[in-house]
Amino acid sequence: MGIIDQDWFHVRTFISHEVPIHAWWKDRDVCSTYWRYYVNSRAGASIRLHADGSVFDLPPRMVHLVPAWVRFDLMPPANVVQHLYAHFDIVGLPGTLVREVFARPVSLPFDAPLRATAEAMRAAIAGADAARRPQAQFAAKAAIYAALAMLMSRLDPERSARISSALHPDSRLAPALQRIEADVALPLRVSALARDCGFAEAHFARRFRAELGQSPGQYLLERRVALAAQRLLLSDESIEDIAERCGFPDRFYFTRVFTRRMGVPPAAYRRGQPDLGGRRTRG
Fold it and tell me: Quick one: angle between helices 190-197 and 174-182, nearest 10?
């Protein structure tokens, strides 16, 4: 196995920013197909998890990671809190595994590497032109990778083995997952994915479901929905263009599939999610 073959996971960042949060930080029913990285300057902010109604506090001097697909409400602090955040996707980590292994947010102790990378990110993203400076993206990725390395190291053996067994580069399913990620908008056939992995189609479908908890078709559809959700929030493309770019034949089919998975139609999702980026700036 070559070195390139071992580089399966990588992080795609969407936005990194620091804002003061207060009473306005109160969006409800937030659910994204990307992860969140938070560092707060003081206590007071929290989120309420829909899964069980519990409140997850976001104290200072810690890195907080909110996994993709977690549904929650923002709970504003009583006093202004400086809120350093980044939104990112872990390319190569299927949504089924995220929901199984990372069902809740996690807080990580602010050790020397996490503190240093958070401060470097804060310095690199300062200023109005930060989005055009390559060091800002690299600094944000360094902070995210440091946090993810600690997160993975703290998994219990069962959850760690669950990820490794499904996504290790030696996995016979790796070629299919890589093809789906690279060609998600193309009309991929299960028979072609099976050939990539050296399996008969029926055996491939059984093994895929056993390891990832979804059929190949369900997995592909979820990846398309995830990418479409990101484009709805991070671009000004029309819904028709997003549907086409993400592999849906038309807006009507896209709307039906998206609504079934995300709970709201694409247009409502675009209006209702917390603001991001230049047009949307909330974390």
Answer: 130
Of 103, 115, 90, nearest to 10 by C-alpha is 90
Rounded-to-5 percentages of helix, strand, coil across the chain: 45, 20, 35
Q: Return the number of other C-beta atoms located less than 10 Å from residue 212's C-beta.
A: 21
Determine the Cα–Cα distance for residues 275 and 280; give it in Å rounded to an integer: 4
Please state, in angstroms and rounded to a whole number, the distance separating the CA atoms of residues 35 and 46: 16
Pairing type for strands 71-75 and 81-91 reads unpaired
The distance in angstroms from the start CA to the end CA of the chain is: 40
The pLDDT value given to residue 258: 94
Residue with tokens 């969407």: 14
pLDDT of residue 282: 52
Distance CA 66, CA 114 (A): 16
Number of H helices, E strands in the chain: 11, 9
Kindly give the parts of the chain with pLDDT less than 70.
Answer: 1-8, 166-170, 273-282
Q: What is the pTM of this model?
A: 0.84
Rg (CA), the chain: 19
The phi-psi region of residue 61 (left if phi > 0; otherwise alpha if psi is between -120 and 50; otherwise beta) is left
Three-state SS at 48: strand
Domains of the chain: 4-161 (2.60.120.10), 171-272 (1.10.10.60)
**Residues constituting the chain:** 283
User: How far is it, in rounded angstroms, from Cα 101 to Cα 83?
Assistant: 26
Contact 148, 173 (CB under 8 A): no
Q: What are phi and psi of 10, to 5 degrees?
A: -150, 160
Question: Of 50, 86, 54, 139, which Cα lies nearest the Cα of 277?
Answer: 86
